[in-house]
Amino acid sequence: MNFLKEIYHRFLLEIGPMGLTNSYILFPIKKILKRCGIGFKGYKDIDSIIGTAETKRVFIISTGPSLKLEDIQLIKNEDSISMNTIFRLFDKTEWRPTYYVMTDHILQQKLDKDVKLDFDNYAKKNCILNVINKKISKGENIFFIENCWLDHCVRYGKSKRFKFEKRPSLGVYDYYSATQECIYYAILMGYKEIYLLGADNDYLGKKQHFSNDASVVHLSNERAVLSQNANNYGYEYLSKIAEKYDAKIFNATRGGALELFPRVKLEDITNNGI
Question: Angle between the 178-189 and 221-244 helix axes, to the nearest 10 degrees?
Answer without folding.
Answer: 10
